[in-house]
Amino acid sequence: MTNVDSAPTQSADNPFAASAIVTGTPVVGGLAYGPIIRIGERPAFDATAAVVVPESDRDSQVQRFVAAAGAVADRLAERASHSTGVSAEVLTATAGLARDRGWIGAASTLIAAGAPAAAAAAAATEQFVELFTKLGGLMAERVTDLRDVRDRVIAELLGLPEPGIPTPDVPSILCADDLAPADTAGLDPALVVGLAMRLGGPSSHTAIIARQLGIPCIVAAAGLDEIPTGALGYVDGGAGTIGVNPDETLISSAIETSRAEAEKIAAWRGPGATADGEPVLILANVADGVSARAAADAPVQGVGLFRTELAFLDRATEPTLEEQTALYREVIDAFDGQKVVIRTLDAGSDKPLKFVANAEEPNPAMGVRGNRIVATYPGIRNGQLDAIAAAAQGASQVPWVMAPMIATVEEAREFAGQVRDRGLVPGVMIEVPSAAILADKILAEVDFVSVGTNDLTQYTMAADRMSPELASLTDPWQPAVLALIDVIGKAGEKHGKSVGVCGEAAADPLLACVLVGLGVRSLSSAPAASSAVGARLGGASLQRCREAAAAALDATSASAARDAARAVIDA
Ligand code: PEP
Ligand code: MG
Fold first, then answer.
1. pLDDT, average across residues 129-135
2. Are residues 406 and 472 located together in one domain of the fold?
3. Closest atom of ligand 1 relative to the 453 alpha carbon
4. How far apart are CA 508 and CA 530, in angstroms?
5. Where is the PEP-utilising enzyme mobile domain (predicted)?
6. Strand 425-430 relative to strand 400-403: parallel, antiparallel, unpaired?
7. Looking at ligand 1, which residue's alpha carbon is closest to its atom 6?
8. Would you state the torsion angle of the CA atoms of residues 129, 133, 136, 141, taken in this order, to the nearest 10 degrees?
9. 545 given a catalytic annotation
10. How far does CA 555 lie from the centroid of its chain?
11. What's the CA angle centered on 323, arms 322 and 327, to 5 degrees?
12. Do 312 and 183 share a structural domain?
C-alpha cells in the first residue's frame, strides 16, 4: 500500500471515504475528528547581526521587551490555570522563566548598551543557558524551556505567530514532525483530540504522553505533508491512518462506536485476564515512591518494573544503604501484598549515573551498562541488593529482583546466586538477543524473566531506539522481535516459570493479546495504558490470542503482523 491515496472511494484502507489518506504506525487507539492544525514555526532570527539601537530609542526598546516578556508569561499562566497536574506545573514554571528578574535584567542591560530587543533576548538567554548547563542536573534540563521562552518572546517582539502548539478554538488534530517535551506539557486533550507525527516510534516521547492523556495518536506517518492544514480530518489511532474530508455520516457513526469503546476502557477495573479467564497480571512501571503511589490508583496489580536508576539521575555520589532502603520500601509499601519487581541499576547509555563513571565509550548502548557495571563496581550492585533485602524485612511480600542487560547464562547464574543469598526472588531482563536465544538455559538459572522490548527491539534490529528516523525498525511488531519472544515464551512454558514484558510493547492493547498468545503472563507499562490493555485482552480468548500470535509470527513485516493480528482479534 502506498502512503498517500488520493482516490475518494470507500475501501478497507479508506473506510471513511476520505479524499487523502496517509498511513503511519498506530500507537494510541480511538478515532478523533476535527480541523488539522500544525505547530507554529520557531522564529528565524539572526542574533549575530550587528545592529546598534540609537541611544534615544533604547528606553522604548527596554519597555517593548518587558511588555513582550510579560505578555508571554501571562499567556502561559493563563494556560496553566486551565490545566492540571504535571502540565499545569510545567506551564507555571515556564511562565516563571518569562518573568525571571535576572533574565529580564540581563536583557535590559544589553538593550541599554545598544542591542535590539530581540537580539538582547537571545543573548541574555544564552548567558543563562551556559549557567544552567554548568549547574547540571535538573537545572540543565530547564535549558529547553529557557529557549522556548526566548522564542516566544522574540516572536512577540517581531509580531510573528506564537511558536509551539497553538491553542485552537475547537477540538483539533495536531500534525507535526515530533513534539518537544516542553510542547507536550501544554497539550490539552479537550482541544487537541488527535495527534499525527511524521517521525517517532511507538516508544517515542510523544507516544508516551499521548498514551498518558488518552489522545488517539499515530507516529512515523511519512506522507504527513500531504495532509493540508485547516482541512477537516480524522485520525484513526487503531488503524494508524489520518485522512481529510471524510464522509460525514460514516465518520459520525464511527466516532459514536469509538466513544462507546472509550467508555468501556474507562470502566475497566481489572484484574487482568483473557475473555475465558486465563489470568494475566497487568502491572505498572514506576520510578520512585511518588510514581508508585500514583500508579496504585490505576487498575494495576503491582509493579512489573521499578527503574531504580531513575531515582538517582541527579546524584553525584552513591546513595547510602539507608537512603536506598527507605526508597525501595516506599515502593513496596505502595503495593502492600502485591507483586513488586525491582530492577537493579541500569546505569549507562541513555541513563548515565554520575557515581558510576565509565570511560568515554564510542558506542555506549553496547558498552558498560546495566549489570555489566559489576565488573568495575561490584560494591554498587551488591550494596543495592543489601538495601533491597533490608527493605523487604517485615514487608508482606518478598520483592522480585531482576538485572538489566543480561547477555550470558553465567551472568544470570551469578546474579541469581547473589539474590538468593539475600532471601529474594531472582530474575533477569531479556533485552539482549543472545539472552532471548538462550532463554531456556537462562530460565534454568533464575525464577522469572521479563522481556525489555525497547532494548530487545533496538539490538535485534540494530536500530537506535532514540532515532526518530528509524521508527519503522524500532517497532516491537517486527517479526524478528516476535520470533525471539516466541522462543522466550516457549522456554517459560517448559520451565513453568513466569515470563513478563515490561517494555513499551506491553502498552499496546493489540500487541498485548499477541504477547499473551506467545506465552507472556504479565504486562507492565505506564499505568495510563493499563485500562486499554486490560479491556482489549478481556475481549479475546486465550485461543484467539494464540491464533493472533501465530498470524503475526507468519507475517514478513511489522505492519503486516499488526494487520494479521487485528484481523484475528477483531474477527
Ligand atoms: C526495555 O528495554 O524495554 C526496558 C524496559 O528497559 P529500559 O526502557 O529502562 O531500558
Ligand atoms: Mg532496557
1. 81
2. yes
3. 3
4. 10
5. 171-240
6. parallel
7. 452
8. 50
9. no
10. 27
11. 115
12. no
Please check whether residues 350 and 412 belong to one and the same domain.
Answer: yes
Residues in the chain, total:
571
> Are 32 and 170 contacting, i.e. CB atoms less than 8 angstroms apart?
no
Q: Residue 414 pLDDT more than 90?
A: yes
Distance from C-alpha of 186 to C-alpha of 181, rounded to nearest angstrom: 9
Structural domain includes residue 131: yes
Pair (26, 63) in one structural domain? no
**Minimum CA distance residue for ligand 1 atom 1:** 452
How does pLDDT run across 357-376, given as a tens digit for each residue?
777 888 889 999 999 999 99
Q: Is 38 in the pocket of ligand 1 (CB under 6 A)?
A: no
- To test the ligand 1 pocket, which listed residue (350, 429, 465, 522) has its Cβ within 8 A of the most ligand atoms? 429
Whether residue 237 is found in the same domain as residue 321:
no
How many helices and strands (H and E) does the chain possess?
A: 21, 17
189 and 330 in a single domain? The answer is no
Give whichever of 13-27, 121-135, 468-482 has the largest mean pLDDT: 468-482
Distance 459 CA to ligand 1 centre (A): 12
Check 175, 217, 502, 513 and give the catalytic one.
Answer: 502
Query: Is position 108 within any domain?
Result: yes
Domain boundary residue among 141, 158, 175?
158
User: 407 and 459 in one domain?
Assistant: yes
Whether 502 is in the pocket of ligand 1, judged by its Cβ within 6 Å, is yes
- Return mean pLDDT, the chain: 90
Residues 377 and 392 in one domain: yes
Sign (positive/negative) of CA torsion 52, 157, 180, 237?
negative
d(CA 512, CA 282): 10
Query: Any residues with CB less than 8 A from the CB of 141 and at least 6 apart, and which?
Result: none
Query: Does a structural domain hold residue 555?
Result: no
Domain total of the chain: 3
CATH of the domain at 22: 3.50.30.10
Q: Write down the pLDDT at residue 85.
A: 64
Per the CB < 8 A criterion, the answer to whether 450 and 500 are in contact is: yes
**Residue 553 pLDDT > 70:** yes
* Nearest ligand atom owner, CA of 450: 1
Return the pLDDT at 140: 63
* CATH number reported for the structural domain that contains residue 115 in this entry: 1.10.274.10
Which residue's C-alpha comes closest to atom 4 of ligand 1?
Answer: 452
Compute, in angstroms, the gap from residue 80 CA to the centroid of ligand 1: 32
Mutate to test the pocket of ligand 1, among 286, 307, 515 (most ligand atoms within 8 A of CB): 307
The residue whose CA has the least distance to atom 8 of ligand 1 is 454
3-state secondary structure of 26: strand
Q: How confident is the model at residue 6 (pLDDT cuts 50, 70, 90)?
A: very low
Give phi and psi for 188, each to the nearest 5.
-105, 110
Question: Whose atoms come closest to the Cα of 406: which ligand?
Answer: 2
Q: Is residue 176 part of a domain?
A: yes
Q: Which ligand lies nearest the alpha carbon of 405?
A: 2
- Check if 346 has its Cβ closer than 6 Å to any atom of ligand 1: yes
Residue 79 belongs to domain spanning: 56-158
Instruction: Give the residue-averaged pLDDT of 104-131.
Output: 92
Active site residue 82: no
